[in-house]
Amino acid sequence: MDTKRQDELLDDLLKDYKTPQDILGENGLIKQLTKRIVERALEGEMNEHLGYKKHQKDIATTNSRNGSSKKTVKGKLGELEIDIPRDREGSFEPTIIEKHQTRFDGFDKKIIAMYARGMTTRDIGSALKDIYGVDMSASFISNVTDSVLTEVKVWQSRPLDPIYPIVYLDAIHIKNRNDGPVISKPVYLAIGINLDGVKEVLGMWIARTEGAKFWLSILTELKNRGIKDVFIASVDGLKGFPEAIESVYPETQVQLCIVHMVRNSLKFVSWKRRQEMASDLKAIYGSTTEEEGRRQLDVFAEKWDNTHPTVSKSWIANWPRLSTFYDYPEAIRKVIYTTNAIESLNYSLRKIVKTSGSFPNDDAVMKIIYLGLMNASKKWNRPIMNWKTALNHFAILFEERMRNLD
Fold it and tell me: 8 lies in which domain range?
């Protein structure tokens, strides 16, 4: 159709236009056009199905049109009542609006996008009512978001790279009712740094029990999904994890998160002396060598044990797994002794879940965490800082292990 003809048609459609409501309102032009276009498309589908157009005669077929039925569908324009053509044999399967479809394509995505931003089902229902004039119950919205669970299962079982130089493991605690009293449940997240230096969420698990058996099942799952080797696992004192990783990945070194150790240590000191203790702790993990770090720990103990003896005892007890990073050059140290890579992710997840208060069951938790992870990971397209230098060191330190995976 040429431009002149298009302009003539638009002028004809807009000849009675006086206010925006005439175009965008409940009975406005756009809504009427949408209804007409969809119904015309349905008629075209019926023509294709029967093999002839409406009112065409002398057709050799036993099937024929059989009136229409009304269906109300929801979409950006609110609710539309559409006449769906029928055939006598009941074999017509429309595609533009399928038999059991009650919403236009793309509408579910809007519901899921709002849910992913931490909006409750009630808030989503109110927003849809305000924007589109559509009434949707909380249970209906919950059913729409349940479609995410299928994605979660596919994502959680996807193949992984054969090697991740560094894997971080941490937890975010979420209030969960599970048909009983509200309890705080940890959702464990595994983030890997791949050979390109890019962060990747490897999986998430809701802990029912914590210990070697729990971690063994997770590590076995990761191995079955393709991970053959991990150089360093950075964790936050997870009970039973060292024993489990030694079973599945015996060559992997465990590094307890220094940042978590510092935070836990500072809980025992008054606000006035927090900065002083933090500075003394930094002298430990900021040391050039393990020998110097251990000497600084002795200096720390001598200064603080009279008033805060539990702090140095904790560092001494965990020293074998706190001091792993001393074996590596500066380019790798800061990458492995802190879980900053996962801390920023946890922060964004907490912003999402805090609006909901508590969740009714594990499925609801998995939905919101998965959607939050997908939103956050959209920004993960660049290597972490100083990665090339770190990778060169890994290539030298773990030359044989990397070569065996080629």
Answer: 1-105
Which residue in 137, 141, 74 sits closest to 101, CA to CA?
Answer: 74
The Cβ of residue 220 has, within 10 Å, a number of other Cβ atoms equal to 13
Residues 58-105 have pLDDT tens digits of 666 778 888 888 877 766 556 777 888 888 888 888 776 767 666 655
CA distance linking residue 138 with residue 123, whole number of Å: 9
- Residue 81 one-letter amino acid: E
* Cα(157)–Cα(171) distance, integer angstroms: 20
Long-range residue pairs from 387-393, CB within 8 A, at least 24 positions apart, any chain? 387/193, 387/196, 387/197, 387/335, 388/197, 389/331, 390/165, 390/197, 390/331, 390/332, 390/335, 391/165, 391/195, 391/197, 393/328, 393/329, 393/331, 393/332
Averaged pLDDT score across all residues of the chain:
80
For every residue of 331-371, DSSP letters joined together read: HHHHHHS--HHHHHHHHHHHHHHTTT-SBSSHHHHHHHHHH
Do 189 and 218 fall into the same domain? Answer: yes
Going by C-alpha positions, the residue among 151, 90, 68 that lies closest to residue 116 is 151
What is the DSSP annotation of 243-294? HHHHHH-TTPEEEE-HHHHHHHHHTTS-GGGHHHHHHHHHHHHT-SSHHHHH
Pick from 90, 136, 97, 95: which is nearest to 114 by CA? 136
Local structure of 163: helix, strand or coil: strand
Same domain membership, residue 141 and residue 100: no
Domain count for the chain, please give it.
Answer: 3
Mutual orientation of helices 148-156 and 362-377 as an angle, nearest 10°? 70
Q: How confident is the model at residue 278 (pLDDT cuts 50, 70, 90)?
A: very high
Residue type, 62: T
> Does residue 155 form part of some domain?
no
Residue 124 and residue 61 share a domain: no
Co-location of 71 and 141 in the same domain:
no
User: What single-letter DSSP state applies at residue 184?
Assistant: E
Is the residue at 125 inside a domain?
yes
pTM flag (> 0.85): no
Mean pLDDT of 117-135: 69
Task: Give tens-digit pLDDT for 210-228.
Answer: 678 888 899 999 999 999 9
